[in-house]
Amino acid sequence: MTSFEEAETEETATCLHLTFYHPGQEEKMMFRCLNFCKREQVRADDTAKFGRDSSVCRYNLMDTRVSRIQFSLQFYRKLHTSECGFEIKNLSKKTKLTVNQTELGHLNKIDLPWKCIISFGDYRILAEIQEGESMDYFETYLHLADAPIVQERCLPCLPSLQPIPENGISPSLFLPQGKSPTEIDENEL
């Protein structure tokens, strides 16, 4: 057997992609202490804290309007499954934190959706979870947005989504109320 055959099976880690935006990021450089475009491993039992206190926070935001400890992310395994997730907790006494449309006061926490926007003050952070198998650690991958991050429409929240044909004109615009298009085989024409 070769060393390749005897090697441990490679395990992928859950990766939390975080894209940061602030309207004054060019002038104020509040993100200068963050390592962008580089994956960082974080032990599963560590809490990833964000704020301006570098002695406590792993991810520092250089802005006096940011709390000493703004918020934390805790990696966990969901009960009775092998699926992992993140819990976000607002640690700021002065600033509310919003995750998509949910507002969190001091010490409030919720599960982080697989894709969401975290907001506080003028800060917007797009968070996206990429699943992995490792239970020992997770990874963070930070990005800097060039343009403002806007709230995307939540597809499951929209009740009547209909596909739009290639010509871009929805057939529902021309159909009487309550009627839906019927599919016809091209050989039947």
From TrEMBL:
<feature type="domain" description="FHA">
    <location>
        <begin position="49"/>
        <end position="121"/>
    </location>
</feature>
<keyword id="KW-0391">Immunity</keyword>
<dbReference type="InterPro" id="IPR008984">
    <property type="entry name" value="SMAD_FHA_dom_sf"/>
</dbReference>
<dbReference type="Pfam" id="PF00498">
    <property type="entry name" value="FHA"/>
</dbReference>
<dbReference type="GO" id="GO:0005737">
    <property type="term" value="C:cytoplasm"/>
</dbReference>
<dbReference type="InterPro" id="IPR033621">
    <property type="entry name" value="TIFA"/>
</dbReference>
<dbReference type="GO" id="GO:0045087">
    <property type="term" value="P:innate immune response"/>
</dbReference>
<keyword id="KW-0399">Innate immunity</keyword>
<protein>
    <recommendedName>
        <fullName>TRAF-interacting protein with FHA domain-containing protein A</fullName>
    </recommendedName>
</protein>
<comment type="similarity">
    <text>Belongs to the TIFA family.</text>
</comment>
<dbReference type="InterPro" id="IPR000253">
    <property type="entry name" value="FHA_dom"/>
</dbReference>
<dbReference type="GO" id="GO:0043123">
    <property type="term" value="P:positive regulation of canonical NF-kappaB signal transduction"/>
</dbReference>
<keyword id="KW-0963">Cytoplasm</keyword>
